[in-house]
Amino acid sequence: MGTEIKNLEPRLVWDYFYQLTQYPRPSKQEEKAIAWYEGVARDLGLPLTKDALGNLVITKPATKGMEDRRGVVIQAHIDMVCEKNRGVDFDFDNDAIQTWIDGDWVKAKGTTLGADNGIGLAMGLAILASDDIAHPRLEVLATLDEETGLTGAMELGTDLLKSDILINLDTEDDHTFSIGCAGGINTIGNFPYKSEDVDTSNYTFLEVGVKGMMGGHSGVEINEERANAAKLMVRMLLDLTNEFGIKISAMESGNKHNAIPREGFATIAAKDSDVDNVLKSISEFSKVLKSEYSMIEKNIEAFGKRTEAGGSFINAEDQMRILTVAMAVPHGIYRWSPDIKGLVQTSTNFAVIEKKDDHVHILTSQRSSVHSEKMYWAAQIGSVIKLAGGELIQSDGYPSWEPNMDSPILKTAVNMHKEMFGNEPVLEVIHAGLECGLVGEKYPNMDMLSFGPTIRMPHTPEEKVEISTVMNSWNLLKGMLANIPVK
């Protein structure tokens, strides 16, 4: 399935990407893809090294005449976000991604594609496998567990890399160079609850929820102000609790800190006498959502239907407390950059809400290019969690990457872009997190730049990569490597 992508140009890049789609690589479970990567190094006869965490580097000597140039690291992460549409029969721990071609786009059937960041990794390997591309000494770095916490870059060995230029291939707009990024932190609340025994002889169980939203990357698409399914589900459940006294036995929405939730589902019990009015209220709420998001979310809807009996219930007091705090936790843009037009400076993503065995888990993620604002919002949300009696957990976070307009590799890249495409590229500081900030902490003298082909809807089953832009990035990468300055 999907072998037709191997016939796309550039052949080596697409062949390596196809191979990578055959190996499962969820974050923190990349073992099979790692074994494949090690096999590529053996097949090419090139040395491979690892740091203590397991980040991998394949090294290739400079081509003839390029020995006096500065060494270059080509970097991408090996893991991918694993999302699938509800009802799709797919096991991310074992199954190969099923790719297909739609015009100038490569997509996956019902799941994330993994072009983020598999295409970048495939480009690095294609350079290693080529024998007709001029380049300095190369190190192709595959980092681990980028998507759930930038763990690979965070734990990167300080003696692993020998080069002082890094080309990160994790930017998702053609003809665009990323020269800086936001930092981030996760703020988590776990809310214990007491279960409640209910005589359900006079109750009807319903599956309710919200669906049909675009979701997306909480850094890349937060500026589009798309609907957040977790927040909307909470809003609906709180209204139903206040009006009808419904009882919740299950709820879930979202599963990744860096993705805007696309759908949310809950199992509730309503008194038999209230069922018709509950379903009517949900139908009315669906109309409200379609009106509120008419210009953004074309397929948004709220739904309710009868279902089989659910599990244990959250007691009434805890249910109200948890839904109230979930309503109070913010989501969206806090501040736009006063210096760079169109750049989100600070935001927070309500990423996950899930009823577990003995508590309700809420995960949020704060991003900012200003450290103090990032920590302010983390503290504010943490205060809401503590006031509501939740257990507060905060991640270590990761730093922003400050732009350097005097960067030599940036100047090389801009000149090459003008030569190849006849115009200057877009230079941007992005609101998403890139590993460059963490690499820069470990290697302070590293000169860094990020670019890549156009990828749309990353972190969702609608993810797709534009075929023609893969060729553009490939040609740009080759041109840059041939023009790296001397040491």
Describe the structure.
With 487 residues, the chain is an alpha+beta fold. The chain has two domains: 263 residues, Zn peptidases (Aminopeptidase); 210 residues, Alpha-Beta Plaits. The strands form six sheets. Strands 9, 11, 13, 15, 16, 18, 19, 20 and 21 form a nine-stranded antiparallel beta sheet that branches. A hairpin with a 7-residue loop joins β18 and β19. α5 crosses α7. The radius of gyration is 24 Å and the shape is elongated.
Layout of strands and helices, then pairs:
Elements: H1 11-21, H2 31-44, E1 48-50, E2 56-60, E3 72-77, E4 99-102, E5 105-108, H3 115-129, E6 138-143, H4 151-154, E7 165-168, E8 176-181, E9 183-192, E10 195-196, E11 203-211, E12 216-217, H5 229-244, E13 247-253, E14 259-260, E15 264-271, H6 275-292, E16 301-306, E17 313-314, H7 316-328, E18 332-336, E19 344-355, E20 359-368, H8 371-387, E21 391-394, H9 408-421, E22 426-430, H10 436-442, E23 447-450, E24 455-456, E25 464-466, H11 467-482
Parallel strand pairs: 3-6, 3-7, 7-23, 8-22
Antiparallel strand pairs: 1-2, 2-6, 4-5, 5-25, 9-20, 9-21, 10-17, 11-15, 11-16, 12-14, 13-15, 13-19, 18-19, 19-20, 24-25
Helix pairs in contact: 1-3, 5-7
